[in-house]
Fold these 4 entries.
Entry 1:
Amino acid sequence: MHQRTFARVAPMRARLFFYACMVVALFLAWRLSVVQGLDGRLYAKEALAQRSDTVEVFARRGSILDRNGNVLVRSMPSESVYAIPREILDPDATAAKLRTIFGKLDPGVVAALHDRHLWFVWIARKVSHDLAQRVRALDGPGIALKEEDTGLRVDTSGSLASTVLGFVGTDENGLDGVEYAYDDVLRGRSGRVTLEADQFGRPIPFGLERVVTPAQAGSTVQLTLDPYLQFVAEHALRQQVRAFHALDGTAIVMDPWTGEILALANLPDFDPNRFWKFDDDARRDRGVMDAYEPGSTYKLITAAAALDSRKVTWTSRFPARDTIEVGGRTIHNAEDGFMAGTGGSETLEQIVEFSHNVGAAEVGLSIGAKTFYAMERKAGFGDPSGVGLPGENPGIVPPPSQWSGSSLATMSFGQGVSVTPLAMARYYCAVANGGNLMEPHIVRAVYDQQGKLVRRVTPRIVRRVFSQHTAEELRTILRAVVLHGTGDPTAQIPGYATAGKTGTAEMVVDGEYRGGYYAASFIGMVPYPRPRYVVYVKVERPIGSYYGSVVAAPAFAAISRAAMLHAGVLPSAAVARNGR
Amino acid sequence: MIQPQRHDRTIRIGNPRAVRAATQRRKARKKRARYVGVTRTLAVLTAVLALLMSYVVLTSSLTGLSYAVAKAQANRETLQEETMRLDDRIAALRSDDRLSQLAARLGMTEPARLAVVRIAVPRVVRAKPSFPVLSSLAGFFAPAVARQQ
């Protein structure tokens, strides 16, 4: 029945409908084959280009570690706060809220918040996580946070060793200190990645990802700094600088056997997390950058040249007097209670022990310019030490051809030359280790982001400065300084034998020696006779007293004592309470 | 015109019931045969649809999982950052500078004199058994509980 009905009423229309459908279907099939097959690759490529984006992947900056592997500086993901003034309903209330978070607001920012035509203004760049959370909690209109591509550098230890570590700029590029010197190692290399993104530009997880250039995270730099010794050095130095209302100070602790810098303290210092709030002077690494006239600590160069050249022996005697005229210039002994007197004679040991300028000048004159200058150069003065820190000052050690008639005499007690604290500490390391001039270094090792060792810095002997025998004699002299000379009793430590030399030098200000401007220093080693540490302390422009024995030696004693206890060296009953 | 066929022999229906049943079966077969094509087509379509649906379900499930993995990775990164922040906080709290300030606030000063107490390392004396073989056997014969203790 149905068949009959269908056959009767629908054949023509059904056929037409069927053919029409077939035509449409064929058309669709043809288009499908064109889109998917013939031009498929082209369309796929265009579609991918439409939904993919090539972005720069910033490499994370590497961390800086201390010698124990603790993090000193690291990079954290950062956010910046910005405002859309157009969307802010109540600019005054918003500014008040922001003030509760950031304290003081820049007047320019406050004015921008009131500008209804403005679309964008930065409130603060790279804020800490806590501040970002507080801003997020505000949830007010027109205030938002933007994730920064580069991280926020955080010095976990605050201002500890800040002048050595340095700081970075907004784009995480090293600007000073280790951050600058090892910028190429720490920074890594940013890469480029093409990835599929959704309509909001967010990367689609497990979507197509093509690495154009792989990003290489920065390496981790491990320093030789010991955080405890660094703290002790800074603490002891700060105490002396405050006590004598001094202008600045430097303290260095070195391992004489390896050349490792265990502590390098400079005052004034700064907070690297807010470096822009401090002036350039506070950011100087004085131990490396500032050359000064060393004064009496330089007498050990004279002594080394004299003993090593055998022109002066242990028993050689020089006339004892308190003034001498050389090249038209009168040289005096310091009026520090250790005058030489007249009529007698003194040995080289006594000259250094009581820090007699006249005696040192006599020794210098007796050995001659050539021997003296050769020792200066062998000791590394006048050359960069190779420590690898930025702005290292090689010092000024003029050759004999540039000397005046009194130069040799004055240089013999540390006037007329300029050296850095690090160069002096390095020289005393050579005295401590038996005569080898070590290359000082602040970096111990470099690791990649996976913690794999990339480079380990090994101790390097630059050259032999003098014989072991001479070194032993010099140590004996230094011990005598602490036992009976200018270092008695301020450089003595109960239970530990120390050796060292005081230095009190007039400072050159604007090209001339100025009264009242002194650099008080002490360089020593502990424990005697086989030193483990060389400790350098210098305090500039102290007020009240200016002798190295009064201003610098107490800091040396404090640092040395802490270093000994830190190293687990127990006080010896053989060394009496007064360090003798 | 089709000539009616002539049957030379008369048809005898032995069992009318059986014939009727056969006719019914034939009719049913015919009726079923009319829908065989449709049924087969539907079956094929259903199978294809099922495959397509399972592909879609699996794909969506995979996408969901990949989003979950991405979320977990983001969480992990957040936690790592939080751990780093806590590490920094610990470092700040344990810093020598802070401890020295606390100590100063509490009125603590560095000792001027140190007292070194040397403690002699106690010598371990092992009692020698009189009969080594017997003493080792004694352990073997000790009760289980005692051995455990």
Entry 2:
Amino acid sequence: MATALVELDKSFKSELSRDYGTIEVRVVVLHKKVEVVTNDEDIPEDVEPEEVLPSETSKSPLANYLEDPKRGKECVVFLVNGQRQEAWDNTYIQRDLGFKYLRNRTMIVVDLDGLKPEALAEIMQGSREHFYPGTVYHSIVGRLSATLRKDPDLESLEAEAEREISELRAGDQAVKQALDQLIEAHHQQGDHLEEGAGESGPGGLGHGIPFHTSQQEVIVDPDSPLPGKVASGPYLISEPISATIRLRPDESVDISVRSYPPRISTTPGLISCGDFSNDRGTRV
Amino acid sequence: MPIEPTKLNSNVDPELLLRRILSASTSNAVEEILATLPIRNEQEYTFNSDDDKRDWKQGMLHWFPVGGDRGNAGRIKLANRPINPIAERTINAMESLIEMMRRLELLNDSSAPPPGSPREAVRRYFRLPPLDQLQAIGTIDGQDARKYAREIARQIMVELMFDKKAREFAAVIRDYGIGQAPAKIHRTLLSLGSSDKGDKPYLIGVFGQGGSSAYAASKYSTVVSRREMRLLDGEADGIGWTIVKHIFPKGRRDDYFAYLASHPDGRVPILSPSTADAVDFKHGTRFAHVDYDFGSGGAAITRNFFQMLNHVLFNPVLPFDTNVSGTVATIRGNGYRLSNLKTERKAIDKRFAGLTIDQ
């Protein structure tokens, strides 16, 4: 079971135009987090064998206060004698009031008991489900929107929610960058799973990496003699090393190639595939 | 020759019959009751408002159109959500409690002015504020307001039953309110649009037919009512009962809803006060809507029932109890539930601040 916390709970009365009477509005904004209390609830008796019951963890703060959170987000309700006679979903909160970041946790309750009997008679329908969209209705909607749109408390909560979302996005970006760095570093170290290991490729080249049969090839390895061949140079070094290069469509890759020992300064730049002539070179 | 109201055969045990009616929660159970009763075939009797005795057969019960109107389907099929008829019935139950208190008040003081609104009536007769203010008020007559409201709620019970074998729901709304004299049930509980609430500002409904939409949502409905003994207004005591169902006349397209009547004027069958006492039915009304159609619904109905009622009766004038497959809970509406939430450290609490916004 989930219990919500409330951030704002305010009520006010408002006089309608044309002497239609008054409406009372209550706005409740819940905290975006809910306290989840797990209970051993019985499985409902009418549950169908294949039916998936709603998950408590997936519920929004308002979920427990809506008729059917899966179908209708009827978070704007109009009451006559406490009975819901009309309900709107949260697009009103987002589009008409402009509180995008509060839309999933705001309940607006409009009590119409203060309407004059004639005004009430005009909007009530026999079906008791929707109001007649005439002048009284539009007077109610206009007053409601005008009052709530500039409500300082709601504006303040909206700004706060927006700021939190921005911080969250900034945090997300930082995490993404860190992950990118980690992945890149992983690629850089891709040949370090085993000393001297090469990348496996279509021809089964490489050493110590699964998926292909190991095949010996003479390569130059200045740091470790296994399994490459120790050489004092000169030879070419690519960065990143060829085993870790990933070529993807429509993506450029910077590869620098320099000689060892560096007789002259090399300038990093893009190279095209080429033959570095002998078995001691690095293949790209 | 005047037609006498149909009396049940001497081989029908009235107490057993009443018990069976009160316990019937599946269409099978209702059909078993119907099989024991002398009922005219629905295709052989057609109600005629110009001559209500035409085709009537003495000694039998007849399927009589609800509201005395063969064209009643359009006024009954008004529910566009399964929960709404149950909410309407619950509202009717609240009204029956308020009306009982008002009538008892008039017995003591015939000049007592009527309450100006349902909320005022509830405050006067039950000392309850709007339920979303229960939390703020804290106590009523020295009692915890929440517990006090729970005691009041016991006078209305909304029960949802599910029969696993039949895979059928039954929605039962029982109130311990004023009830109806059995001879008047056809002109009150089974009427359509002939409300006497218009001059009673303390009642809620206006159209006088909202609860009838429950007939369309169920295969059968049983209706049982008994008037509060002090408020019989000269009518005979007793308990009236009937069963409502959907009739599809052969070869016609004008389906309608009808109930079992014992007389061409629409009166329902009546059992004696002693029979009512034997099953402990003192006063009030009970509607049971059997094989209630909730549609596919998605999530399990029994799980969502509490939540649905709290939303459609968002801030009801009176609290009431629900019993969903044996689990009893009091409903005070979402208005109360939202007021009962814990506040955040930085919460802006301006509840009922009396702030008035001018144009």
Entry 3:
Amino acid sequence: MSENVARRGFLIGGLGGAALLAAGCTSNEPSAAPTSEAAPAATQAAAGGNDEPGTKVTIGFSAPAADHGWIAAIAKNAEATAQQYSDIEFKPVEPTNDINQQISAVESLIAAKVDALVILPNDGEQLNQIALRASEAGIPVVNLDRIFPDKLAYRTWIGGDNYGMGVAAGHYIGTALKEKNVSNPVIVEIQGIATLPLTQDRSKGFADALKTYGFSVTAQQDAQFTVETGNEVATSLLQAHSKIDAMWNHDDDQGIGVLAAISEAGRDEFIMVGGAGSANAMRAIKDDNTVLKATVTYSPTMASSAIKIARLIAQGKGMSDLVENQVPQSITLASETITKENVEQYLPLGFES
Amino acid sequence: MSDPTKPRTDTGPPGLATARQAVANPLGRLIEGGHVGLLVAIALLVVVGLVTRPDAFGTTSNLISILSLAATIGVITVGATFVIIGGGIDLSVGAVMALSSVWATTVATQEFGPVVMAICAILVGTGTGLVNGILIAYGRLVPFIATLAMLVAARGLAQRMSDRKTQLIQPENSAIVELSTTRVLGVPLLVYVFALVVALGWILLNRTTFGRRTYAVGGNPEAARLAGIDVRRHTMLLYALSGLCCGIAAILIMARTTTGSSTHGDLYELDAIAAVIIGGTLLTGGRGTIIGSILGLLIFTLITNLFILNGLNTSDQLIAKGLIIVVAVLLQRRSLKERAP
């Protein structure tokens, strides 16, 4: 869900007249956008003395420009966590969706001799070289989410589990349908952008988990991670199946459109599971007045953890709950299932879509 | 066909003649030319639907959802038809719709209630269209470039305003959403809006001076100028009209998705242009019909619906749509040639 829409944004700068127009219009912009209460991710993790101020370290941070609520939350979380530590000097570089620019941004961080780097690359393959150069220069690289193919290029990888997301959704739906004693259920899946490996991983996890219950996906359609495409696809899918038992929608932002289509069609005979864990979805689960009963996380809080890990590595500390003296090489976050029962606990972590 | 010094036997640009025919015999117009092909194509798709999914396709609720799906882009297609008949092109439609939807759903706008939100969407759409029109008519920019600039700029402004977030319509403004959820005679209100826009568009194009001027300006601007038409002013108005349609479409997409977002309407410009072309409108202007465009759009919507009903994926849909565009244009060329001698 991270590589996403608004691919045209980068053209804007080039067009003088257009830019002028934009500037002219925005000057009396009605105090834009809903207030961003995207709470700085809660960071009350286990801390066995590791949070005590230590050696002062400089942490460089580079990520794509926000074109989706999830990426926006990544940047926000990283900064919020860095500010909680008096011993971190946080050095973010201008976010960009351009590979070349991200390379030179990381180069500037290497030249500035930061003590650790946190990089969410636009594309792991294409930024591999520059991460490798940072590592060779003795700067530990914490690779966030999109992985560098070369293990020499990074010290630690931390990211989400797309396959695990599918598994979590599959288990939730499998258990729920078994409890209801449904045989041959109609299970519908609405994917994000079908060509992305992450989407394929999610679908595979979903199918594999369902198989353990003897179920399979009846129909699968892809949308584009946007509200509008979610709405379009769902509208026809609902027509295709007059009775549905369960639906998994890969992305909560696109889920707003899916939910609108469901309520427009007046359908409520099935359960729906979301994906990613947006604040909107969590509020809907909490209110429990839609078909959305659960969502499986792919949480941008991983950026907070990445900053903490970079700090520990730079200070030469290990993770206090583990026996090892050093931070592990790879951390895959579990995809958690948020339901009405535990939603309160997750609400502060939800991101505004 | 564009020699202004040689008066045509049927007086006036080619569009005029066809427009007059339409008035004389609307049914004949529907059957004439490319429309036969379109109706056959729709009939074929309906048969395919009835055969492959007899249980799901022919139901009233499916037909209504096809119309609901077509409504948003249908409204845009009406505006696009005018622009293309007038010899121009508007690439900014999707972005302008996105901008209108975002502007109408900001916290500030939402405070004023649903009516102001709707008016805001329409004003933003029309205003942006007007800017396009002024740049093209008076700034002498090529339509392709002016509206391409607007496409990226409007999308960027929409992202900036919304901070790239999806803006939900607040519960107190749910009157907007009711356009989609309230049904009269079993049909959602937004389908009536769509029908109304099509009807008004048809009247404007076929029964008014404005419509005749549109054909004239698109068919041969120089002749139109000599005939005393203010070509620049007319061109400007055409883009404003297209913007107005985008504003109306923004209200419909807000109703359907309960949100305003900078991601709305992505690639709508291509769908709208494709529908217009399949519908028999010449990209060079001067010739075309609203009904053709709407039929063209219905073909696209039917294909999407059929593919989803049958569980086929998006890639196959895209291939089918591409093929249909090519076939439609080839057929059109043939029917033009047949009429030429």
Entry 4:
Amino acid sequence: MREEDIDRIVPELLRQIAPEAPLADLQAHLPFRDQFTFDSVDFLNFILKLEKQTGNKISELDYPRLASLQGCRTYLKET
Amino acid sequence: MSVRNLKKLFNPSSVALVGASIRPCSVGAVATRNLYAAGFQGDIYLVNPRHTTIDGHPCFADIASLPKAPDLAVIATAPDSVPELIAQLGARGTRAAVVITAGFGEGNSRQGQKLCNAMLEAARPYLLRIVGPNCFGLMLPRVDLNASFIHLQPLPGRLAFVAQSGALLATVADWATHRRIGFSHLVSLGDMADVDFGDMLDYLATDGYTRAILLYIESITHARKFMSAARAAARIKPVIVVKAGRYSESASAAASHTGAMAGSDAVYEAAFRRAGILRVNDLEALFDAVTTLGVLQPVSGDRLAMLTNGGGIGVMATDTLIYKKGNLARLGESTLTHLNAVLPPTWSHANPVDIIGDATPQRYSDTLNALMDDPGVDAVLVMNCPTAIASGTEAARAVLESIQQRPRGARPCGLLSCWIGEGPAEGARQLFREQGIPSYETPTKAVRGFMQMVRYRHSQTMLMEVPPDIPEAFTPDRRAVRDIIDMVLGEKRNWLLETEAKAVLAAYGIPTVPTVAAETPEAAARVASRMEGPVVLKVLSSEVLHKSDAGGVALNLETASAVLERAAWMGEHFHPASLNKGGLKFSIQPMIQRPHAHELIVGMHVDAQFGPVLLFGHGGTATEVLQDRSLALPPLNMNLAHEMIADTRIYRLLSGYRGVPAANLTEIAVTLVKVSQLVCDFAEIAELDVNPLLCDPRGVLALDARLRVQPAVEPAGRRLAICPYPTELEQNITLPDGQTLLLRPIRPEDEPAFQRFFASLPAEDIRLRFLHSMKLLPKTMAARLTQIDYDREMALVLAGGDEPQHVDLLGVVRISADPDNENAEFAIMLRSAKTGLGLGPMLLRRIIDYARGRGIRRIFGEVLHENRSMLALCKALGFKYRTDPDDPGVMAVSLQLQQDRSESAVGTTSL
């Protein structure tokens, strides 16, 4: 997946899960949970939406890699 | 191999006796009489086509005519009829049967075996559970059920006795009933075609009414299942076993020292010890165990005080106590002062406390109170020999009154009694038993009973102990070992050459003496000339097993010419062997001379029942004569390895004596752990001898090793009786900040880290996880949560820090499955600092995947209503949830992982 697509899709999915989140200022290297309220359930919902969006199953062992925008970029570029 | 439908067996509401009879002295007639005489409150149906009534009770012609399906059927008809009866009973809805009938393959009868298979086939579609065949029946005195042909009605009590032999069951029941000792279950398993010891242990472990379990075992089936069930049961209640067949000739054919010394009975002994089961050796000791356990009271230690009216029995009891490695309590100063005040001047002034033959009841109670109050006393054995001066019965009453009058909150102290003699003494013993105090006929039996309590306590402590980490980083070179084994098997060999065997040990970090192979005597001499000092020359051949015995070892050769000469002689001597498998070679190694070194043996042998068994002992060429060895089932940890070493006689030499320094015991233990790991890793290893393994204060050194391999028939882990640590589940996890964590199964060694993890959790998190507040994690619970049976449970931890020395646990997820692997309870804990990084969903998903892979059908858990995030997470993962009807504050959540088995299998599990 291209980086610009990732940068578009990830904030969009985050907006659906956490509508209050200040996504305009999203910092790529900080975990989402350090920038806005984002608990385990939000995380799981994010993963489920990401799987639906990309059509790929994400191994649970890789979940922690997807905890920040930069993590998503690295991971999704590989897949 | 299951506890399913055992509830029907042990808690039936109706019973049918198929084969009820009026023929005097027949099994059917006695069983009929017993069923009615016991006073069973449920429905009883007699079945026999030849009668319409038996002893005035209605009798039905066949299964089809019964008014309803009985919960339990007892079958005492001809063997040929049994498979069809089972099929009919199953079809009607019966789920449990006791087959008393014999003739199902005892003595390897082929026809009988066929019948047995037909019977099991008939039962299978209904999951109908069968006790027997060829058994004595079943007695459940608590529900007034006697479905056996025993000669008496046992009393209700809280002991369960399960025996392979019906005759033994009857003997113990007879003995106990005359002493007014009762049972919760008396089960004769007979040929164990279906229900076996593992099933019984699983069932009885969780039966709230049973306080202790006694087993009479001749052999077991399904070693791994037995070990899992026994370990689980022994953690909950005392399990005592009498194992018959202690001497067997089966070891004589073994090729290695280990094989020759690891007799099958010794393996049973090792398995029982590992499970935390107490073994007793004969019927008398079993009777003592029944006496003790029938009125079990825990003891807090091993210090015994004795109170007697006769010096002689005090001495005898002390002898037995010391012989059994017990501890004679040392009385405190204040106790002695008190006793001086209340006893005549001629009293013994020490433990055993002899209060003299004319002891009055008052003297008994004064002394007993003083002893029970002494903080150095864990239990008191009160004894009485008959005299013409004082009444034993009065003394017994005085003792009982003292106990009853002891203030609530007085320091706990165990009490045992021994009233010697017949007549009045028997009455006194009965008085004690009725008051819940074990009472014995002889001092020896009394002390043995006490030591059983002590051994039980010790085994419980051992089960809870945290093993230390192996003190050095240990990363075996598995690839190197795999290559050697493949090469040897590829050459159609079984025995490794000495040099190959040593290379295997070296790959697992076990120090070995440098050993060089040479093709010819001349080459051997050249190798020797390059080594410093004298050398050892050995034949190097897969064919010569005991080299020293055959003249294939020459020690202390000082010159190259001596090596040449000796090698040439060996070449001649072993000529026939040299014709096979690639000719004769030689190995040359430096002669190791260490003044204070001990020769040890470490080995492994595969037992037909329990799989690989490890051996440690006094090594050298005389190892089999010395017979100083201890066995243990792998996998080993450092505690178990130390225990193995301490179990031998040579341990006392290894600990240092008379100017000889102590050997490096830690290094020996580490070597045992490494050998255990080797055995756990490679299913091809069939036999191993490291003999001698030299040991001194500097460490260990393997001087010789023999190893036999054979093609593996199953994965390495599967052949072990105890499921080893599943290394394959280890996974690295990378956090967004680059920190790497290890997701891995929990280990017993994690207990300190687990305690730290628990202490770091906020009180609210703990309340949400354990459903109640808890400030400290009790030691027993910490042990239970870290020492798991990987066959039935799994706990995955997220470990950070510097593994393995400074483990930092960040989260734990676990499942605990029922013995049938049907349902598993799950639980999760995560440090709150780590939430929102995907670790919680990751752990839950991981354990769900694991459970699914194990064939578990459903996982479930309890979540407090206010634990909204957990409930939401469960919902997102597809869990169903409902309010717990018994506790509205709790939600029961569950996730179906796969389809249930047939309808008959559902909803009948007792756990």
